[in-house]
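Researcher: Go.
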Amino acid sequence: MMRLVFIAATSLAALLLWGCTGIYAERNPFLSYSDHYGIAGQQEESTDGGGTGMEVAGRFRRDLTITFRNNSTQADLNTTLVAWVNPSSIRSAQQQDALLRAGYSQLTEEARLGLAFTLPVGTLVFDGGGTAGATSIFLRRAAGTGAGEGETEEAGIPTTTSITLTTPDVILVFSQPPVSCDSVAFYFTRDGEPLTGVSASGPESPYAGAATGGAFKTLAQVDVYQCSPLRPGLFLSLGGARQSNEYYEGQNITFDFNLLPDANGNCAVVTIGAPSAAQP
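Model: Structure:
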């Protein structure tokens, strides 16, 4: 794969360039930050995730399906998926080959995802065609009548898309490389332009600086993401009681995205469901 580079948002204009595109010729969502600021800050190699790495019928792990649902009848959804398997989880050339056949690509240079993760050489990333194998997620607004900005959301038919992949160690859905829980996780647009809205007030607000009805939703507004210490994303459970930000091998995952926050300030709700029907 080509060298991985990342951005941090410094302005609305930078945010409008986000959304992972092809890594070979098109602009990617992280290039601007590297061009202007370089990559700074040494990080320890992440030991999050892991897994059994047990090979079943010539495969590395069972498949899971990630489903994205835009429940907003007012605006289109924009975000990005990156998923990876740590080198420590791969115990044989056969397992590595199985991941490569399943659509993963191996990093040849270290990559940093903001201040949250460092992906060392040898990490297998699910290759969605963008930087770090990133997959751009764009969903039109849900079918309904809530077309006006600021209107109450109407019950509608969500717009959905699904991606099936071999169970990774880590799943990260985000728009801005995470440097804090104020970093953008996803955002809403209408006719290609981000919505406007009134920002939540107060530094202790559960909205973490996001606009209540505006475009940009933060990592803090994904209900299961961990903020203290900063550990956004979902992680493969290694056994025992599953935590709210963990999944078992083969379990399907659904992200429900909403324009308006719930009582706890969340605009994305993650549901970890039953094992995939694709498992042997």
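Model: The CA atoms of residues 210 and 217 lie 6 Å apart.
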